Structures are given as C-alpha cells and as structure tokens.
C-alpha cells in the first residue's frame, strides 16, 4: 500500500516565509492563492511598517474609527491575549519596539544595524492594552493618542488560524499552514498526523529540527530569542519586548514551543513564556498548555504532556533568571 | 519490530507569483507496519517505544526501522476550553501532540526569514 503525501507550497510574505501543505496535491495551487490573499489582507490591516495600513490610520485619527472586521478581530485577539497573559503579551509595545531598534522591516534592521546608540535602551513600561478601546457593537476602535500598536505576534498567529480554516473549508482538504514558524492544521490529517519539526529558526529547514512531533489538529507555535536578534553598540537585542520594562525580555529561555487549540493561543503561551522567564514553567503548568522550553545552555524542559525528547538533558530551570526573580 | 520505509521527494516547481517550492512527501509503509499510539488521557504520562532510526528531511530516499511514536494527551481542564483566537486556554480537549520519527513537513521555530 502506498499513499501520496501532502504537497507543500512556500512563499515570501510579511517579512518571513509562509507555507501551506494540503493532503490533496491537486488542491495546492488554490490553497496557495487563499494563503496569499489572507497574508495580503492582514498586512494591509495590521502592519506597523506601512503608513497606508489600517492600524496606522486608526492611530493617526486619535478618535473612534470604524474598522474592517479583520482589523477588529486582530485587535480583539491581541487585547484578549494581553488580558489572559496578565499583560505579558501586549499590543501597545510599538514604541518600545522602535526604541530597541526594531523600527522597520527586520531585514533592514539586521542588514543595516540600528546605528550606534540607537536601540540600546528600553522605552519604559508600555501604555498597556487598555489604551485600545474596542466597541464590538459598532466595530469601532480608538487608540489613545501617542500609543503605537504592534500586532506582530498575535496577527501572525491569527492569519495562520484564519488561512488554515478557510483553506480546509473551501477546498475540503486536510491543511497545514505555517507563517514564520507558527503552525495550524485543519481538516483530516494525513496518516500519522502532520509532522512538525521544532528548531530555533523556522527558516533553517527540517534538517535542523531538534525534535519532530506529530499532530492531527490544533496548532504549534514557537518563540525564540536567537532569531530576529541583532546587536546595537555591541549589545545583543531581540524582538520580544517585556511590556513591564519596554526593553528586550531577559533571556532565560531561548526557544519555547507550545501546542494549543489555536495558533493565537499557542503563540500567546510561547511569547508570554519568554517574558515570564523563570516563572514560565509554573504558569504554563497552571494553564495546562503542553510546552517545550529550551534554556540558554541547551537544557530542555517539557510540560503538560509535550513528548519528552530522550536525547537531551533536563533543563537546569533557567537558574540565572530564577535567582534574579528571587532577589526582586 | 515494525518496519517502515519512507521515501521523501522534494521537487521545485515553476514558480507562479513569488518564489514557490512544492515539495511532495511520499510515505510508504510495509504491510502490517501501522504505527501504534499510546494515549494517556487526562494525565501527562507518556509511552515510548525505542527508536533505532530516523529519516532525514528532503534527502531523497531514506529507510527507517522501528518507527517510534509517542503519544500524549494533554490534561483537560474543565471550564477553560478555548476556541480559536480566544487567548491562552488551559485545555486542548482531546487533541494530542506526540513525538514521531517521520520527516517534518514544516518547522516551528522562531520567526526566521
């Protein structure tokens, strides 16, 4: 017996790599078109790098503005994640991201550097998600003047969920969508499930996976402090901001992966875990989110049913940050 | 001992708009070699079988013997079941994530290029 495997289509979008795999290879071209359409829509709605984006117009307005269903959904998801992570993942980190030097497409940040003295310090505590006022009844949004919204984390995950659902529904095929390493699957999975590699850099290719897991449904997201990282005046910088300081989150875990019913939920857990640092294992255990955490020395900690990897050693539980947390 | 043969084939396709690569993964199982899964509902327990081989990604034809599958089912936490886009949830319901020796279709990791 034999079975034809899924067909995979890869494309560049929103500053990273997007992929769609479908169980029926004949459906791949249409699946790619749908994914491309979803990516274009989320970019136009949510990009903080595009002056013509809808969120940029909302910020300029300074008053309540009726917005598209997509932007409203993205803002609603971002605020809900902020609330449920206790503010660890907050959409009002836009100015903080600018302050650490991530003020343009990442390829430009990494390629040109941010210049001596720029991006070496955080901006202080961010305004907080309550600075975004959402009116679901009228689908209006008001962003408090001076607040700069960054939907980078949740919008990417949201588009993964949306695209996977839309492709599986429209084409009636088992579907996997991955954008920048955030993955969701929908519809009937291939025999044995969808095999997903886990690696610090999603663009490194399957051959660099530290572990391979299989899922039949749900989503896997990962956050890393070793990619989307750069240096300013010799100081290492990365793209995950701690909203409490407005600076790069302390590097405790270099890679966190999580499995959840949706990519938005999985991404919220992994991003929050980076920010939570030494407290992450306890909080993730409490949430019941299956997760895998890798510390700076390569130690691995798995939680809540994430499969153990017998080839790696147990994490020393982020000793440095634990000591810092205990002292505070 | 189960025996599984896996063949991976990745081919470049003529790109439409934007660089597009289409990869086709072909898996073939030896008759009677269906992988078994152990599920530990409601606990974080795992069941593991020994691994003696693993395929490599996109490397042409590879063979593995004794494919290993570990299945875990996340503990269900009543009252916290989430839906798409609902933030962090403590439950994945009956969904499971398990280890496998199969060739990954994609990689989950930090947002690379």
Order of helices and strands of chain A: EEHHEHHHEEHEEEEEEEEEEHHEEH
Low-confidence stretches of chain A: 322-328
Oligomer: heterodimer
The structure class of chain B reads mainly beta
- Based on Cα principal axes, name the global outline of chain A: globular
Strand fraction of chain B: 25-35%
Q: Quick one: biggest sheet of chain B?
A: 3 strands, antiparallel
**Which consecutive residue ranges of chain B, at least 5 long each, have pLDDT under 50?**
1-91
| Mean pLDDT reading of chain B | 41
Which chains have the largest interface? A-B, 105 and 67 residues
Q: Using only CA atoms, what is the Rg of chain B?
A: 18 Å
How do the SSEs of chain B run, as a string of H and E?
Answer: EEEEEE
How many E-type strands of chain B? 6
Number of DSSP helical runs of chain A: 9
What is the helix tally of chain B?
Answer: 0
Shape of chain B: flat
Which bin fits the share of residues in helices of chain A?
Answer: 25-40%
Helicity range of chain B:
under 10%
The side-by-side strand order for the widest beta sheet of chain B comes to 2-1-3
Beginning-to-end CA distance, first to last residue of chain B: 41 Å
